[in-house]
Design brief:
By secondary structure, the protein is of the alpha+beta class. The chain folds into three domains: 1-55, no CATH class; 59-125, Orthogonal Bundle (Arc Repressor Mutant, subunit A); 143-173. The protein contains seven helices and four strands; from the N terminus they run E-E-H-H-H-H-E-E-H-H-H. The chain has helices at 28-53, 59-71, 76-83, 87-99, 121-142, 147-171, 180-183, and strands spanning 3-8, 13-19, 103-108, 111-119. Strands 1-2 form a two-stranded antiparallel sheet. A hairpin with a 2-residue loop joins strand 3 (103-108) and strand 4 (111-119). Helix 2 packs across helix 5 (121-142). The longest helix is centred in the first third of the chain and has 26 residues, at 28-53. 12% of the residues are buried.
Amino acid sequence: MGKGTVHDRAAGEYKTTGDTGDTGVASAEEAGAGLGSQIVRFTRLVAARRHQTKLDQGAGERVLLARLLRDGEQRATDLAAETFLDLSTVSRQVRSMVERGLIERRPDPEDRRGTLLYATESGRAVYEKYRQQRDAQLAELLDPWPPEDRYQLIRLMTRLNDDLVANQTKRHGDGTQPEAGAQQGASKHE
């Protein structure tokens, strides 16, 4: 038993405490509060950095391109469901992306009334440029970290994401499943 770290919700910071065991936090509730605060802080910092570096422009397009590149061609309704976006939002984005040659439409061979969307080579190039910029920024940020810390961060983020998927699946005991896109692991198109 030794000193640990707990989140002081009122102060919005972590404090060293007395005897909390080997876990480093006093309880799952305090860990949840601390993680929640850090996720909010991380999200805000990432949004600010994207805005400063102009990576925020076209964020909606990147989400749609990532799904099309990862999952292949699909209908706009499926794309909206996969990305948790309103169909009208997806339709506006699709129209703009088609005009700029990032995606194209083709008739659905199973239902000629519908159309399938797919990413073009230009769309792939735009997405890859963004992904490379994002990865370079993260590499710059993580460069001073010891290799063990970088490994642990990736390992724990993977575990957190896997546990979120397992929890969603468990909560949908009525036979429905959480959205497939949210369940799937990271790919080079995330």
